[in-house]
Design a protein that fits this description.
The chain has 334 residues and is an alpha/beta fold. The chain contains ten helices and 14 strands. The longest helix has 23 residues, at 217-239.
């Protein structure tokens, strides 16, 4: 009988997160500049959102270049080459004008890989991570590169205070491999869902040749604060842990007040690290969790630490999972 390939008969019980990477624009916009068109000062913006500054690109092509850089960094940290990857997943809600963002990116970072776009908005990275884990468990993939990339500034209405002061651009990436032994498993099943009855709370309307983002900020705030704590508890239950076991809490970086309101509802250990990259990056939608994680891991020694990731946003969609973090990444390639 012919030998059976991994793709039809998996020999791994699960998957693990082995590296992270991120890339953000050099162009920085301070809170004071964000508020100026609306007669608001920087302190007002920071009090309302937690944002001190954010970063934006000038075009979708620049955003895609940040995706390439983030992916290259993650591959380098994993000590892998582009040819090693057999599946590329790209989470984005702002580069949808392309027939396939993932295929275009694959040409640069994973030329032999299958490629797929995932649009779950701000939950996109968590959905992509769950997809990678599932495909590895079933044998349909072995080495997966995930990229969350957004050009949110390309969708903004400059006259809309609620959205124009919040969103930034950038990309984050992760490499996911199979776990050969049950003790190696580092990604646990996700708790996911959606509520389409709230789709109009965050939506994009046609405008010229593109779209303009519309958001009901206060309603979204109330929805997220009411649903995400239970989402996190559900993800912990699926991983066989409690909220006291969480060492790093990586929520979607939507708003600092929202992060505070959610985290205070959880029974977290006093030593937990609650990531607050929103302060310097703004809300980068599907890119926010991998950017925040990548930057935190680069400054710490988190190997084996349990992180709880939770994405939530337009759709309305939500997804959360527990993971074990990799060690410090290698320096970005020159």
């Amino acid at each position: 009988m012919p030998s059976v390939s991994l793709r039809s008969a998996p020999d791994v019980p699960g998957s693990r997160l082995v590296s992270l990477g991120s890339s953000q624009p050099a162009h920085v916009i301070a809170a004071s500049e964000l508020g100026r068109p609306f007669g608001r000062d920087g302190d007002w913006i920071t009090r309302r959102t937690g944002i001190a500054e954010l970063r934006r690109t000038r075009s979708a092509d620049e955003a895609l270049e940040h995706a390439r850089r983030a992916a290259t960094t993650a591959l380098h940290a994993a000590r892998m080459s582009p040819e090693d990857i057999d599946l590329l997943l790209v989470a984005t809600c702002s580069l949808g004008d392309r027939v396939s963002t993932s295929a275009r990116l694959a040409a640069a970072v994973a030329p032999q890989a299958a490629a797929m776009d995932i649009n779950a908005a701000c939950s996109g990275f968590s959905y992509a991570l769950d997809t990678a884990d599932t495909l590895i468990r079933t044998g349909s993939a072995r080495r997966v590169l995930i990229v969350g990339v957004e050009w949110m500034s390309g969708m903004l209405d400059p006259d809309d205070l609620g959205s124009s002061i919040i969103f930034g651009d950038g990309a984050g990436a992760a490499v996911v491999l199979g776990a050969p032994e049950p003790t190696d498993i580092g990604i646990w099943p996700a708790e996911t869902g959606s509520d389409g009855t709230g789709a109009q709370l965050i939506h994009a309307e046609p405008a010229g040749t593109g779209f303009r983002l519309q958001m009901s900020g206060s309603e979204v705030f109330r929805w997220a604060v009411s649903i995400v704590p239970d989402l996190i508890r559900g993800a912990c239950a699926r991983a066989g842990i409690t909220t006291r076991d969480i060492e790093v809490l990586a929520l979607h970086q939507a708003n600092l007040r929202m992060i505070d309101a959610i985290s205070t509802q959880l029974d977290l250990d006093s030593g937990v690290h609650v990531l607050t990259d929103i302060v310097g990056s703004g809300n980068t939608s599907a890119a926010s969790i991998p950017i925040a994680l990548s930057k935190w891991c680069a400054e710490n020694t988190p190997s084996g630490a349990i992180a709880l990731l939770a994405g939530f946003g337009a759709g309305l969609t939500f997804s959360a999972q527990a993971v074990r973090l990799p060690g410090n990444p290698l320096p970005p390639p020159g």
